[in-house]
Write a structure and sequence with these properties.
The complex is a heterodimer of chains A (266) and B (257). By secondary structure, chain A is mainly α. Chain A is 75% helix and 0% strand. Chain A is built from 14 helices and no strands. The radius of gyration of chain A is 22 Å and the shape is globular. The N and C termini of chain A lie close together (10 Å). By secondary structure, chain B is an alpha/beta fold. Chain B folds into two domains: 126 residues, Periplasmic binding protein-like II (D-Maltodextrin-Binding Protein, domain 2), CATH 3.40.190.10; 102 residues, Periplasmic binding protein-like II (D-Maltodextrin-Binding Protein, domain 2, 3-Layer(aba) Sandwich), CATH 3.40.190.10. Chain B has nine helices and nine strands. In chain B, strands 1, 2, 3, 4, 5, 6, 7, 8 and 9 form a nine-stranded mixed β-sheet that branches. In chain B, strand 5, helix 5 and strand 6 form a beta-alpha-beta unit. The radius of gyration of chain B is 20 Å and the shape is elongated. Classes of the chains: A mainly alpha (266), B alpha/beta (257).
């Protein structure tokens, strides 16, 4: 990208490059346009007022908000430790936290069940001692979303923090600030762009979460049926409502990407 | 920074699009639909029983390979309407067949089996479910099928007919997903077909619903391609041999017409 401005003559004139490039673009654009073309625009308002749409969007708003709170609370210190710690286990921790990035979400759901299910490693004692069951609850939805979204945030914020000059936190320490104060008042404000970008990615991932949710939390309107699960459930019963919900999610995704591009990518 | 983010976005889109729609497509569905391959899309409750049915049909037609794909009945109809390659569809309820477009139907609808609901519970039956009324007990984790699939419609009819309003923990996308939640012990009880309990006999226990309180689902099959073999397969479902297999698996025989 940076090199482009230094080139003297265009190197993209050949059709043997343009044709595959155009096919690639079309492959992505055609389904998105088809989604818009098949949407029943005049009746969009009616479809959007069907119960499945409102309920699932509301639940998605609530669960992704809770997820983001946890992502900030847990992810920001984690990213800082990964960026600065010299502990031999740091590299391992960094590798482990990125696993959900590449893991098929449904496998994540199975793993969550094995840990937090009623016969799970943690969930078993939790039910036996405290009578708390996690699967099929809104809490389970948030856990599934946190599992898949946290790595996006941590990887992105850690990148920004590693780019920070070590002298900055050293100076803060010299001036008498403790590690927590340095973190809160010096480090976090300096990496806010990275935090914003990481948050947008993590939030989009949480919003789109499907596989881990349906496996771990099941599907119940208003309790565990988030927007993607709503699309899946409605597609066979009320396809117009499913399309309307899809259009809303497409619009949200485009807005998030637009925000990212204009602010942090240029 | 920018390059890093682009990489992240690529990873994001990978996982974002990994919405797992359980396609009813059998393996190698892209092979040409020549005379040697027949594609059958069947309801997930037919998963176990269809194998011997396919074997006997292949035995009658040397050189023929039958590919079977299993999914929720509602998913199958939707996919065939959207042009999924198939020769025969076999569903778990008549209502699911209704949305199948007339242009896709190449033969008469054949009702080839019936099925009834049964309560599946974990082998140790932690909630002590003994009959239908126990499903309304406080604190019971009950999973049922979503209303767009036949077992979900049967469940709704059962609840309405018996005046039951139990708390449901989750509406699962097909009957096998409902069964799995019980197998894993995450649910205290699930409403599935009698045949599913029989097929998973070593992993779940069944609590029968008496005949006079139960509901009956009738299984339709219809040819969705013009090939003669497609109609032959539908007719094969009514053969004595297949009817015996179906009854062995716990289905009711083809209803009188």
């Amino acid at each position: 990208m940076r090199a482009a401005s230094t080139r003297e003559r265009p190197t993209t004139g050949s059709w043997s490059l343009r044709v595959p490039a155009l096919i690639g673009i079309a492959f992505v654009v055609v389904p998105l346009v088809a989604l818009l073309a098949r949407t029943d625009w005049p009746q969009l308002g009616t479809h959007l007022s069907s119960p499945v749409v409102g309920q699932s969007l509301r639940l998605s708003a609530v669960t992704t908000s809770a997820t983001m709170m946890l992502v900030w609370l847990l992810g920001t210190p984690l990213a800082w430790l990964l960026a600065r710690s010299d502990h031999p286990l740091t590299a391992w921790a960094r590798a482990v936290i990125t696993v959900p990035l590449v893991l098929p979400p449904v496998v994540g759901g199975v793993a969550l069940l094995m840990a937090w299910g009623r016969r799970g490693v943690v969930g078993g004692p939790l039910e036996a001692w405290f009578g708390i069951t996690v699967p099929f609850t809104t809490v389970a939805v948030v856990m599934a979303e946190l599992f898949v979204a946290l790595p996006f945030y941590v990887v992105s914020v850690e990148g920004a923090m590693r780019g920070l000059d070590r002298r900055v936190d050293q100076v803060a320490a010299t001036l008498g600030a403790g590690p927590v104060r340095t973190f809160v008042h010096v480090v976090v404000p300096l990496v806010l762009p990275g935090i914003a970008a990481g948050s947008a990615l993590a939030w989009a991932r949480a919003l789109g979460e499907f596989g881990a949710t349906i496996t771990f939390a099941g599907s119940f309107p208003g309790r565990t049926q988030t927007a993607p699960l709503g699309v899946y459930a409605a597609l066979e019963q009320d396809p117009d409502a499913a399309l309307a919900l899809s259009v809303v999610m497409l619009a949200v995704s485009v807005l998030v990407l637009g925000g990212l591009r204009s602010r942090w990518l240029r | 920074m920018a390059g890093r983010l682009v990489g992240l976005l690529a990873a994001a889109s990978l996982t974002l699009t990994a919405c797992t729609r359980d396609a009813a497509q059998p393996d190698n569905a892209d092979e040409p639909q020549d005379g040697l391959t027949l594609t059958v899309l069947a309801a997930s409750s037919l998963t176990d029983v269809l194998e011997p049915v396919v074997d006997s049909f292949e035995g009658d037609h040397p050189g023929l390979t039958v590919r079977a794909g299993f999914s929720a009945s509602s998913t199958i109809v939707q996919q065939v309407n959207e042009g999924a390659p198939a020769d025969v569809v076999a569903l778990a309820g008549e209502a699911s067949l209704e949305p199948l477009e007339d242009g896709r139907r190449s033969g008469p609808v054949t009702l080839f089996a019936t099925n009834q609901l049964e309560i599946a519970v974990p082998v140790d039956n932690p909630a002590g479910v003994d009959d239908l009324d126990d499903l309304a007990a406080d604190g019971l984790t009950l999973v049922v099928c979503a209303e767009q699939v036949p077992c979900g419609q049967a469940t709704e009819r059962l609840f309405a007919q018996e005046g039951l309003q139990p708390d449901v923990a989750s509406y699962e996308s097909d009957v096998r997903a409902t069964l799995t939640k019980v197998e894993l012990g995450e649910a205290d009880a699930g409403l599935v077909y009698r045949t599913d309990v029989a097929a998973a006999a070593d992993r779940v226990a069944g609590v029968e619903i008496p005949e006079d309180r139960n509901v009956v689902n009738r299984y339709p099959a219809v040819a969705v391609s013009d090939r003669e073999l497609a109609q032959d397969f539908v007719d094969h479902l009514l053969s004595e041999h297949v009817q015996e297999r179906l009854v062995e698996a716990g289905f009711g025989p083809a209803p009188e017409r």
